[in-house]
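Researcher: Last one for today. Full complex below.
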Amino acid sequence: MSTWNEIKIILNEEDLEYIQGILYSMDVRGVSIEDPRDLLDREKGPLTWDFADINIFEYGKDKAVVRAYFNIDVDVKEVIHEIRERIESAKEFGVIIEDFEIFSEEVHESDWANEWKKYYKPTRVGRKFVIKPLWEDYEPQGDEIILNMDPGMAFGTGTHETTRLCLEAIEDHMRSDTRVFDIGTGSGILAIGARMLGASEVVGVDLDVVAVDSARENVGYNHLDHVEILHGNLMDVVEGTADIIVANIIAEVILVLIDDVKKKINVDGVFIASGIIREKEKMVSDALHEKGFSIVEVRREGEWVCIVSEVSHA
Ligand SMILES: C[S@@+](CC[C@H](N)C(=O)[O-])C[C@H]1O[C@@H](n2cnc3c(N)ncnc32)[C@H](O)[C@@H]1O
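Model: Here's the assembly. Have a good evening.
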């Protein structure tokens, strides 16, 4: 049984998205979120970012709890220090996060790794998709497309805003004979979705071997061909060019990716970039303009943004 370092942050619910953005950019292996708004707004339970937990309201109705799991060999003090520094430097962007507490403890995998499954239910995304946990039964209705998913420890249940925004953008920009690169594929959800929407060939890449294994398994669960999942850094391992390049990674990584996207995107292709919190939308769109892209559309949900761009012809 694996042992993990759990960092627990108790904070005001309005600060949740920003903290997610911070954790998202660290070497976190899994995140559990208890957001009181989920229970109050929807009856279906605390189904939020990736892994959900059950002790909702433990710290009061306005308090959210984030549990982030790091490998056992990380220096916990360093991790907490970095989180505190990032919260401090958020003030430069006018983001004031106050009244939070951070705790840490060692936990065993069985305590948390499967808990989220209780709240992971078939979820409708975009016009056609129903993301179906592998272990759930669901009868498709009308023209629904069933996407079977067991994300395990990888990001990409289909419930996070950024995943949904990307999937919807892929749905709208899919043409015939479309080749797709999914950079930061996680559970493989976008790569799989793209192929189901008619992409002729899809290559998904992730730096994390856990994600690579999960994505390959999910491709298998959906019985798909022409979807290749590669282990590697960003676009280093992809060959050739694509018509859609999608990357749901954090804003800072999107910036690094832009030059490679420009080299590997076909004429009239689109770059779908998400994982961007609203505060960083301008930073990313400015960088895209600077590198010769024009913005086709910006999709927003909650605190999250998905920017669709293309290389300017002018
Ligand atoms: C937010 S998740 C997105 C997962 C999935 N595509 C989705 O939309 O739900 C970001 C993924 O990017 C991967 N990633 C982060 N940095 C990367 C890099 N430099 N190269 C490749 N993958 C990376 C992470 O391991 C993670 O699986």
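Confidence is low (pLDDT under 50) at residues 39-57. The longest helix spans residues 76-89.
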